[in-house]
Amino acid sequence: MTLNQQQDQQDSVKTLADLRLQIGEPVRIEVKAPRGRYNAKLLGYAENAGVFISAPVSGASGSPAFVTEGSMVTVRMITGNRICSFQSKILKEHDTPFSHWLLSYPRELDLKLIRRHTRVPVKLMVSVDDHDEMAEHTDLPCSALCVDMSLGGVCLQLPRAIGKVGDQFYLTTRVQIGDIEQVLLAPVELCNQHNVGEEIGEIYNHGYKFLELDEDTRLIIAAFVYQQFLIETGNLDRSGQEL
């Protein structure tokens, strides 16, 4: 799917019904007072009438959410390559025939599309080395700080400029995906570099694009970027665990 097709698809979504959500999809409920985040399941919805969810519970303890009817909540769901959120009111809390809530139908949605070039902020120490053992970079390998990552590449910060546009390197780092640590080894090509300047000294941003990646490496990058995107949008905590 092209970028324009993705944008057209994004623009065509106006209501909750347009998302064609599946029954049983995970739902996250955020409450401001008393502050809390809870997990639930989508039970269904009636267009322009209401949204039915299972009674939310705490993701950590499994304890039920004690929130009064009439309270405003933020609802978040992940559907396909989108994160959907909206404001809603608790219209009714039911105990029979099972515990569930009726929420007001959203008037508007906040949709975030996860694209190939969606960059997520990170702080990872990365080792930079020559792609070619015969290369003449005498200052490699060296350490750098990775400040953002996408499915297509990374941005590294170094105290000096290394290489020229078109040069190829290997990056090595460790990423935490949930409770699993993965070693990431990726060939990259330098696309741009510039001096961003800092009060404490010179800082050079280096933009790299990933070259041909094996399937395992692509999966690691995709899982990590997706996890960081969920953290930035409030759907996971900073350790990558469910809230």
Rg is 22 Å
User: What CATH architecture of the largest domain do you see?
Assistant: Beta Barrel
For this structure, what is the CATH class of the largest domain?
Answer: Mainly Beta
- CATH topology group of the largest domain: Thrombin, subunit H
Q: Could you give the order of strands across the largest sheet?
A: 1-2-3-7-6-5
- Which ranges are low-confidence, i.e. pLDDT below 50, for 5 or more consecutive residues? 1-10
The H-level CATH homologous superfamily of the largest domain, spelled out, is predicted glycosyltransferase like domains
- The percent of residues in helical segments reads 10-25%
**Mean of residue pLDDT?**
84
> What is the domain tally?
2
Class by helix and strand content? mainly beta
Number of strands: 14
Shape: elongated
Strand content: over 45%
**H/E order of the elements?**
HEEEEEEEEEEEEEEH
How many helices? The count is 2
Report the span from N to C terminus. 32 Å
User: How does the major sheet shape up?
Assistant: 6 strands, antiparallel, barrel
Describe this entry's structure for a reader.
This protein has 243 residues and is mostly beta strands. It has two domains: 3-113, Electron Transport, Fmn-binding Protein, Chain A (Pnp Oxidase, Chain A); 120-232, predicted glycosyltransferase like domains (Thrombin, subunit H, Beta Barrel), CATH 2.40.10.220. Helices cover 12% and strands 47% of the residues. The chain has two helices and 14 strands. Strand 1 (26-32) and strand 2 (35-46) form a beta hairpin. It is elongated, with a radius of gyration of 22 Å. The model is unreliable at 1-10 (pLDDT under 50).
